[in-house]
């Protein structure tokens, strides 16, 4: 991997809260603390925006001599970057979107680490975790009170073909023409396409200040650099808080073709919507893709039916190859969300009424032991089975692209997932389809080697 690097000093673009001496010390002490390592990893990924790599280990090894030094100064903070990827600069100046995201990462990581010991943070209860997610989003200035529901979350794969990518752009364009904003996981593929389409539509409608919100977490951002259209980047501490942030700030969700990461998000969402307390809460969900992806979408739909049942299937619509209809149905669903929240005096900017059980909020560590002990059986309630299936997919995501997951697979071999044959067979078929359709890795990379084994 040939690389060109530069050494440069960068001041914040826009505003960044002044860091305390303790916070600067947390980041910079001897260049060896855990907070520093986390920020260095995220900073390197942001500087690699546009690189066709989805392996955190590869990026870290390619720029192992990259350093970032944080300097306190009277007007805030300055970053000194050593051996930084040169592609992040034009004529010696850092690209504006890259600079914004770099300081967003600094803001989020410093705040997360500094607040964990605060007596105001309660991570021992479900309401406390939700309140923490709220505080993280509020600190990032993501919550805008009084703005009517129009934030559409788009989930889908980073490893998709050009036809699926173009389709996601068309859907984003239709959403943008209806003055809707876009939230994604902020990486490539489906995380970029809808934002790109909406950007053009917003320009046509003369909409200034269109929002392109990217929600990520350190393990993912290191493997999937943010796309440059994102104008609001928030780095949540872990997968579970990121997923909760999606459903708390989003008013509806569109799911495009993808791989295990998309399946993980879909199952998390279904697990929440299937909870008895959420039966009457409107939350529009649409599963969609181009005609060429119909077999994939129907297979995912059938998998939900085989494992979670018809009630789970009733929680979403399937629309094939019709971007305009997707936008029409989403806009109609958002009107119901608006009326529901008005009737109950619920906030537009944060979905407080949605019940999320603590099991969905606790971080899942995909060790080989934890993966093998997941209860994949219909003896547990449907919403709990959905949560366990989500964890199984989460482990595969870790084994595919995350540094710690890749190293665990190298050391101990593939994960093993065990459960009832009625669940494991459709699970195995779905995963085999993901591999056959090249949905596990970025196209053009090395051949995919499975990091899992399904055992019934």
What brief labels describe this structure?
globular; 14 strands; 456 residues; alpha/beta
Secondary structure topology:
Elements: E1 5-10, H1 21-28, H2 34-47, H3 56-62, E2 67-73, E3 76-85, E4 89-90, E5 93-94, H4 96-115, H5 126-139, E6 151-155, H6 162-177, E7 181-184, H7 193-204, E8 212-216, H8 218-221, E9 232-235, H9 239-249, E10 252-255, H10 260-273, E11 285-289, H11 294-307, H12 310-313, E12 317-320, H13 323-343, H14 358-361, H15 368-372, H16 382-401, H17 403-412, E13 415-418, H18 421-436, E14 452-455
Parallel strand pairs: 6-7, 6-10, 7-8, 8-9, 10-11, 11-12, 13-14
Antiparallel strand pairs: 1-3, 2-3, 4-5
Helix pairs in contact: 2-4, 5-9, 6-7, 6-13, 10-16, 11-18, 16-17
Offer a concise description of the structure.
This protein has 456 residues and is of the alpha/beta class. 47% of the residues lie in helices and 14% in strands.
